[in-house]
UniProtKB/TrEMBL annotation:
It catalyses: N(6)-[(R)-S(8)-aminomethyldihydrolipoyl]-L-lysyl-[protein] + (6S)-5,6,7,8-tetrahydrofolate = N(6)-[(R)-dihydrolipoyl]-L-lysyl-[protein] + (6R)-5,10-methylene-5,6,7,8-tetrahydrofolate + NH4(+). Residues 19-276 form the GCVT N-terminal domain. This is Aminomethyltransferase. It is found in: Mitochondrion. Residues 304-383 form the Aminomethyltransferase C-terminal domain. Belongs to the GcvT family. Keywords: Aminotransferase, Mitochondrion, Transferase, Transit peptide. GO terms for molecular function: aminomethyltransferase activity; transaminase activity. NCBIfam families: gcvT (TIGR00528), PRK00389.1 (NF001567). Its EC number is 2.1.2.10.
Length: 391
C-alpha cells in the first residue's frame, strides 16, 4: 500500500521543500534540482568557502527533496532480500545500511540507506529525489507478492555535517550523542521544542562526522534557524559544496556515477553484497546470476568505476579517457569531476568508468579536454580521509 505526499510548488512549477522560505531569507541562489527549487549557493559564500566551512566547522544541507518512507509488514525481509544484495536479517535494530536496489538484469535502480527499526517488520528507507517516480513504481511492482506496506513520510530532512556537528546538536538534546556511532540511528527528543521527536541517523554524504535529521515540517524552519544561531560554528550550505564534498569522499551521485545498466561489481560497490548472499546456489536476488558471476570471474566485468586525479583544466562529466600507451585508444569516460577544494595544489579529482586492465590505482591515462590529451592518474578513493565518528 502506498500513501503519496505532495509538496507545494513555486511560480515556475518547481516543488518546494519545507525549508524553502528559509533559503530565500538567507539569500540562496535557487536552481532546479530533480524538479525541486534548491539552494546551490548562499549570499556571501563562494563554493570554495562553503566547502571548506564544512570541512572545518558545521554546515546544514536541505535534503528534504529525498524520498523518506517507512516499510512495514511480515515480509519486509524477504522483500528486501529480493531487491537488494544485502543481509537485513542480520542487521541490529537501529543500524543503517547503504545498499542498492536492483533490477532483473542486476542494474542499479538507485542507491539507498535502509534502517532497521525495532524488529524485522519495521524499516525506514531513504531514496534519491531524481529517481522518485521510478523508485515508487519499482517498489509497487516488486512488492506485489509480499506482505509489505510503504508509508511516505512528509517530513523535512536536513543533514548537519562537519567536525562541529555533534557539538552544535548536543546543545539541543539531553541524549548523549557520543553514544550514537556512525551507521546508527535513534529517535531523540528536543526539550526546547516541546520534547519534539526527531529521527536521527549518524552519517551523511560528505565524509565528515554528522547527522541526518528527519523533522516534522511544521517546526522545521524554526528548528533549523535555531541550529544556525551560532554563526561562528554553523552555516547553511548549498548543492555546489555538497557535490564537491561527496566527490572528495568518493561517494557516487546516482544518474551520473551509477545507473540502471551498471551492476554493483562494475560500480565498485561489491562490498554491499553480503558475504552470506554470495552462494549462487542458495541466494536469489534480482540479477544475482549476473552479479555473482562477475564476482567469481572478473573477466566478465568489462568496465569498472574508478577514481582519478589530474592537473590543469578540470575534467567534467562526459570527458573521454584514453590509454597513455596508445593515445588513439579510448578506454573510458568521466562521470563526475571537479577541482578538489581541499587540495592546496589545485588537483582535480573525479570518477570514471574505464576498461578493466586500466583500473588499478597508479595507472597513467589521458583525458581529452578542449581537444587536447592531458595526463591523469587512476587513484584510490576517498580522495581525502573520512572522519566518521566510530567512538
Amino acid at each position: 500500500m502506498f500513501r503519496r505526499a505532495y509538496s507545494t510548488a513555486t511560480a515556475n512549477g518547481l516543488k518546494k521543500t519545507p525549508l524553502y522560505d528559509l533559503h530565500i531569507k538567507y539569500g540562496a541562489d535557487m536552481v532546479d534540482f530533480a524538479g525541486y527549487s534548491m539552494p546551490v549557493l548562499y549570499k556571501g559564500q563562494s563554493h570554495i568557502d562553503s566547502h571548506k566551512w564544512v570541512r572545518s566547522k558545521a554546515g546544514i544541507f536541505d535534503v528534504s527533496h529525498m524520498l523518506q518512507q517507512n516499510l512495514k509488514g511480515d515480509d519486509v525481509i524477504p522483500f528486501l532480500d529480493k531487491i537488494t544484495p544485502s543481509d537485513f536479517k542480520a542487521s541490529k535494530p537501529w543500524a543503517n545500511q547503504l545498499t542498492v536496489l536492483l533490477n532483473q538484469d542486476g542494474g542499479i535502480i538507485d542507491d539507498t540507506i535502509v534502517t532497521k527499526h525495532d524488529d524485522d517488520k519495521n524499516f525506514y528507507i531513504v531514496t534519491n529525489a531524481g529517481t522518485r517516480e521510478k523508485d515508487l513504481e519499482f517498489f509497487k511492482n516488486e512488492s506485489q507478492p509480499f506482505d509489505v506496506k510503504f508509508e511516505q513520510i512528509d517530513n523535512a530532512l536536513i543533514a548537519l555535517q562537519g567536525p562541529l556537528a555533534s557539538k552544535v546538536l548536543q546543545n539541543f538534546t539531553n541524549e548523549d550523542l557520543s553514544k550514537i556511532y556512525f551507521g546508527n540511528s535513534k529517535i531523540i527528543k528536543i526539550p526546547g521544542f516541546n520534547n519534539l521527536d526527531i529521527h536521527l541517523a549518524r552519517g551523511g554524504y560528505t565524509g565528515e562526522d554528522g547527522f541526518e535529521l528527519s523533522i516534522p515540517k511544521d517546526v522545521s524552519i524554526e528548528f533549523t534557524e535555531a541550529l544556525l544561531e551560532n554563526k561562528d560554528e554553523v552555516r547553511p550550505i548549498g548543492l555546489a559544496a555538497r557535490d564537491s564534498l561527496r566527490l572528495e569522499a568518493g561517494m557516487c551521485l546516482y544518474g551520473h556515477d551509477l545507473n540502471d545498466t551498471i551492476t554493483p561489481v562494475e560500480g565498485a560497490l561489491s562490498w554491499v553484497i553480503a558475504k552470506n548472499r554470495r552462494d549462487p546456489n542458495v541466494n536469489k536476488f534480482n540479477g544475482s546470476s549476473k552479479i555473482l558471476g562477475q564476482l567469481a570471474d572478473r573477466s566478465l566485468v568489462k568496465q569498472q568505476r574508478v577514481g582519478f586525479t589530474s592537473k590543469g583544466p578540470a575534467p567534467r562529466e562526459g570527458t573521454e579517457i584514453y590509454s597513455k600507451e596508445d593515445p588513439e585508444k579510448k578506454i573510458g569516460v568521466v562521470t563526475s569531476g571537479s577541482l578538489s577544494p581541499s587540495s592546496s595544489e589545485r588537483i582535480n579529482i573525479g570518477q570514471a568508468y574505464v576498461e578493466r586492465g586500466y583500473h588499478k590505482s597508479g595507472t597513467p591515462v589521458l583525458v581529452k579536454i578542449r581537444n587536447k590529451l592531458r595526463d591523469a592518474t587512476i587513484a584510490k578513493q576517498p580522495f581525502i580521509p573520512s572522519n566518521y565518528y566510530r567512538g
